[in-house]
Amino acid sequence: MSKLPKNHKFIDLSDYGRPVARIIANSLKKTSITPVQVTVWFIISGLIAIACMLIGYYWAAAFFLILKSVLDAADGELARIKKTPSYTGRYFDSIADIILNFFIFLALWQLTNSSLIYALLAFIGVQLQGTLYNYYYVILRNRFNGDTTSRVFEDKTPIALKGENQRNVNFLFTLYKLLYGVFDKIIYFLDKKAIEGKPFYNWFMTAVSTFGLGFQLLIISVMLVLGLAEFIIPFFIGYTAMIIVFIGIRKVF
C-alpha cells in the first residue's frame, strides 16, 4: 500500500533508502520476522554507529547511520507487504528514533569542543524539524486516503489493531506522548491552519523533506567522513530557522 496516491507523491529526499528497504522487506515476506524485529535491527545499527563515532571510526559510523535509515524504512515496508500495520510498531519506531537521536548528539558533543547546551539545542532543533515534516506529511496521508496508521493529532490512545495487544499500545502511546508531545504542540502552535489549507505542492514537500530523519542522518554521515564533525551541531541549530521559512512559504502558497 502506498502512503500517498500518485498525484500527490513527491520526491522525498529523506527516503533515499526506500529501494533497498523494499528489497529487504520482500526478502522477509515469507519469513516469521516481524516489522518490530526489523525496528530492533535499526536500533542496533544506530547504537553501533554511535559507538563508531565515539572511537573515531567515522566511515563505519556513516555506514551504520545510513543502514539505520534503510532499516527504518524497511520495517514499515514489511508491515505493508505483510498487511500487518500496527500502532505498536508505529510508536516503537518513533520512540527508538528520538532516543537514538539524543545519543547521537551526545556523542557529537563528546567528539567536539561544543558545549552540552549547544548539543541539546541541536537535538531539539532536529526534533522540531522532523516534527514539521511529519506534520505536513501525515496531513497529506490522511487527506488523500493514504497510510493512516499515523494520525495528525495524537491526542488520545488509539484502539489496538488486529494482532496487537492494547496494553502495549497504551504503554507505547504514553511514552510517545511524553517524548514527542512538546514538539507536536510547538509545531501545531506555529501552523495551526495547515490542516485546513490547500493541498501542499509536491515541490514544497520535497523541500520540507530535508527535515526528514533520513536526510538528517545523511548530512551527519557526510560531515563525519569529510572531517567536519565540529560543524554538525552548529549546522542543525542554524537550519532550524528554516522552520519559520517553510511555514511562511506554506501560508503564502
Describe the structure.
The protein is mainly α. It has a single domain, classed as Up-down Bundle (Four Helix Bundle (Hemerythrin (Met), subunit A)), CATH 1.20.120.1760. The chain is built from 10 helices and no strands. Helix 2 runs parallel beside helix 4 and helix 5 packs across helix 9 (232-239). The mean pLDDT is 93.
Question: How would you summarize the topology of this molecule?
Answer:
Elements: H1 18-27, H2 35-54, H3 58-81, H4 87-111, H5 116-143, H6 166-190, H7 202-208, H8 213-225, H9 232-239, H10 242-252
Q: What's the main sheet like?
A: none
| End-to-end CA span | 29 Å
Number of strands: 0
- Quote the CATH topology: Four Helix Bundle (Hemerythrin (Met), subunit A)
Q: Residue ranges: pLDDT <50 for 5 or more in a row? A: none
Estimated share of beta-strand residues: under 5%
Q: CATH homologous superfamily - what is it?
A: CDP-alcohol phosphotransferase transmembrane (TM) domain
Class inferred from helices and paired strands: mainly alpha
- Give the name of the CATH architecture: Up-down Bundle
Which percent range fits the helix content? Answer: 55-70%
Note the total helix count: 10
* Mean pLDDT, all residues: 93
Question: What sequence of helices (H) and strands (E) makes up the elements?
Answer: HHHHHHHHHH
Level-1 CATH class name: Mainly Alpha
- Rg, rounded, reads 18 Å
Task: Please state the overall shape, judged from the principal axes of the Cα atoms.
Answer: globular
Instruction: Give the tally of structural domains.
Output: 1
